[in-house]
Amino acid sequence: xxxxxxxxxxQAIVKAIKAEEALLRQKYPLLAHQNTxxxxxxxxxxxxxxxxxxxxxxxxxxxxxxxxxxxxAASISHELxxxxxxxxxxxxxxxxxxxxxxxxxxxxxxxxxxxxxRKMHLHHxxxxxxxxxxxxxxVGNGIKNPFMRALVIVDGLLGLVINTKRFSKEIKGFSxxxxxxxxxxxxxxxxxxxxxxxxxxxxxxxxxxxxxxPALALEVLNVFEFxxxxxxxxxxxxxxxxxxxxxxxxxxxxVNNMLEQTHVLTSRLFMPFHLFCFNFGKTHTIHHFxxxxxxxxxxxxxxxxxxxxxxxxxxxxxxxxxxNANAYKAQAN
Length: 333
Fold this sequence. Notes:
Layout: H1 6-27, H2 34-57, H3 63-85, H4 94-107, H5 114-127, H6 134-137, H7 146-154, H8 156-170, H9 176-181, H10 186-206, H11 215-249, H12 271-274, H13 280-289, H14 295-311, H15 319-323
């Protein structure tokens, strides 16, 4: 049997994805209404996020349930942002398109501006697997030290601060302030709330200050604590799950073509994390082969396409790579 080249394998995968998409669109005419579907999903996830917050405010659900449900709702908005970056919805209607961009940012306030991230993400597709891929390196890809990797995965701001010196040397055009300022004002507000609550309770634990704190400051703190439960902590859960999954499945170093940019995560070990990042590890590799495709279509065609990918040399559950700071290495036949 003739062994296919990398280019032939890539072409076969792309052809299979596009063919399956065409079949789905033919079978389900509703898929033609892509703009409407995207907007409906956005409004549904936003309503779910607000609804969960209201239920928590009324003491109908406990804090843990609010955090879990809000994180799941926010994970949908990440997929929508990803699609919006690739202009899958209302590309010719800037008012609605930008409204959707702003909404998904507000639902995920611990991320930088989606308008800035568009530039970063499109660059990711061109440089995936190399030291120039800022998007993936910001979330831990290529870091071997497990403690440092965990820190970067959980706290993007600390990760940015810690890695600035290295990024400045290795990544062309990198600017700390360019990335930092891309979070203003939404992400900036997120970190003000997060660190205000952490600092207050840490200090109060060692040196009780609550009794002497002005009433107005305590009222503000109560609002901050409510936001922690309904938005801040859910997004820590969501983004940590996503960052762990994406930094585990993307290769770093030794990458020469699209087959070597990612592997597919189907292991049950990743199931808890997939719950909060909308099955990202199982479907994102499809996106690398065909970027201009709505996320729900990737979910619909993934079962068939993953089998095709397996036949055409895409790796699955490459845990050796994760142990070796995501390096792509040849496997013994």
